[in-house]
Amino acid sequence: MTPDRSDVEGGSSSKRIAILGAGSIGLYYGARLALAGNRVRFLVRSDRDAIETRGIVLREGGKVETVFPANAFSSAEEVGPVDLVFVTLKTTANFELPRLLKPLLHAQTAVVTLQNGLGNEDFLATLVPPENVLGGLCFIASMRTAPGEVTCFQRGSVTLGERAAAAGDRTRAIGALFEQAGIPCRVVDRLDDARWRKLIWNIPFNGLSIAAGGIPTDAICANPALVAEVRALMSEVLTAAAALGYVIPEEFAQKQFEVTPGMGAYQPSSLVDFLAKRPVEVDPIWGEPLRRAHAAGAKVPRMEMLYALLKQLVGETRA
User: Fold this and answer.
1) Are 127 and 97 in contact (CB under 8 A)?
2) Most buried one in 71, 79, 137, 187, CB count within 10 A?
3) β-pairing verdict for 39-43 and 16-20
4) Pairing between strand 149-162 and 133-146?
């Protein structure tokens, strides 16, 4: 039975929010926003029956919270126009966005991509008014552990910015929604700078978890040779970012390394997809940053090698 939406959609003055993609990121942030009283609608695929039966289950820090009933829909047409869309689909599914976004939009709908890698905002700007496009970076360790269920190992924070402008009132208002939901949010004026900061972790740890044989982050951190490779890759990301005008302190990269052992046996999202023989986000996480590094004249041989290896490994799993 479809739940009574009026039970969970809050007051009529609250924003209507759609979560486009119900993996770990979409489930976690959407549920947190719903628990904070927002009118959240989830566009899901295979998990709709589970969500309608028992809601969305969050496991974090030994605590279990449930959003029930939860607003799960199997088509964008059922969701209808909303005020705010969070795109949490994997970038490998971006070809579906022209079809999925159209029923969700009105003239002022803000669309925020919370996807990995580079180039996602520019793609969205071909589908919706460019001034309505924002981007966010999720510094979080979470996994979808069952249909409609997500386990969060480290809540971290969100960094939010406009696609091609300094942050305005709308961006700060969306940041406030995260804060009210208990998710620390930093609003920035230079989104690409923040995206390169996220790549400092994603490029080495997502990549080596696959390239080193399908291992979690704690195994990477326990191997001196892999630790050296992580640090070398982080250094190349800093070099590439600096060549593009984004100067990131080495201390930031060091902190990204230091927080990783505390995640335990964490499987990065790319490894989860690889092991499940699903498409891996190779181009936005490794390919596009490499192309931009080359265009800026940066020397990044380890990034080149990792990208080539990942393309080969991912191709093999699809054969």
Assistant:
1) yes
2) 71
3) parallel
4) antiparallel
- pLDDT > 90? residue 1: no
Domain boundary pick from 160, 189, 218: 189
Contact 56/123 with Cβ under 8 angstroms? no
How many angstroms separate the CA atoms of 229 and 116, rounded? 21
Is there a single domain that holds both residue 50 and residue 167? yes
Catalytically active residues, by annotation: 198
pLDDT in tens, 81-103: 999 999 999 999 999 999 999 99
Query: Are 284 and 119 in contact, with CB atoms under 8 Å apart?
Result: yes
Q: Which of 178, 195, 162 is nearest to 29 (CA)?
A: 178
pTM of the model as a whole: 0.84
**Residue with token string 């969050």:** 58
Q: What is the DSSP string of 264-290?
A: -S---HHHHHHHTT----HIIIIIHHH
Domain termination site, one of 140, 164, 189: 189
